[in-house]
Amino acid sequence: MVEIRFERPEDIDDVRVLNDKAFGQPEEGRIVDKLRISCNGILSLVAVSNNQIVGHIMFSPVTIEMQGSIIEGMGLAPMSVSPELQNQGIGTKLVKEGLRCIKNTTCPFVTVLGHEKYYPRFGFQRASKYGLKSQWEGVPDDVFMVNILDESLMKTVSGIVKYRDEFNEGEQTTLAI
Ligand SMILES: CC(C)(COP(=O)(O)OP(=O)(O)OC[C@H]1O[C@@H](n2cnc3c(N)ncnc32)[C@H](O)[C@@H]1OP(=O)(O)O)[C@@H](O)C(=O)NCCC(=O)NCCS
Q1: Which of 21, 76, 89, 146 is the most buried (most CB within 10 A)?
Q2: Ligand 1: which of 57, 80, 85, 145 to mutate, judged by most atoms within 8 Å of the beta carbon?
């Protein structure tokens, strides 16, 4: 039985260990730790099984600057599931619960840089369809995706989606899958 809930302060060390293990490198865990400290408005959820943290997902604010105004959405990254429990639907639960929480707000869109076969099942589509571009050079068109939550607003918005600077401070860009 896997429960999805908000991350609590006492989960922080376990989340770091999980991210290090799932990614096989410390960069993603570091980004998570930095965002937690420096960024208002993150959404950090954990998957818990037998009192163990077995999954984690973070969403943080992203911005589009257009004609002098800023439109703010959320970016999904990173996400991790304990290697021995992958492919059992835990990641799916994390994405769905994250999107459910965000849909209760006025957030107009959620972006993800991830696998083109995984995220469409949650409502993500190619961002280029909406005139949205990744800030990072060389990102293939099909892996940068958007989940539109406010269709009428997003019809009027286009441009470059900028993630928090914490994502640029590591060795590499975090892909969501
Ligand atoms: C990506 C991840 C979070 C998915 O969690 P999960 O619990 O295994 O996912 P689910 O069980 O809900 O879904 C599994 C699906 O994802 C697909 N999938 C998993 N990893 C994938 C990858 N790297 N590339 C493409 N597809 C992948 C599986 O093939 C499966 O597809 P299917 O449902 O069509 O059979 C997990 O595999 C993970 O932690 N990976 C290592 C860390 C990582 O790469 N995170 C993403 C970058 S931020």
Answers
A1: 76
A2: 80
State the DSSP string of the chain. --EEEE--GGGHHHHHHHHHHHHTSSHHHHHHHHHHHH-TT-EEEEEEETTEEEEEEEEEEEEEEETTEEEEEEEEEEEEE-GGGTTSSHHHHHHHHHHHHHHTS---EEEEES-TTTGGGGT-EEGGGGTEEESSTT--GGGEEEEES-HHHHTT--EEEE--GGGGSSSSPPP--
Nearest CA residue ID for atom 1, ligand 1 = 177
Which pTM does this prediction carry? 0.94
3-168: CATH topology is Aminopeptidase (3.40.630)
Q: Which protein residue has the closest C-alpha to ligand 1 atom 19?
A: 87
Q: Whose CA is nearest to atom 41 of ligand 1?
A: 22
Q: What is the pLDDT of residues 96-121, one digit of tens each?
A: 999 999 999 999 999 999 999 999 99
Atom 37 of ligand 1, nearest CA residue: 86
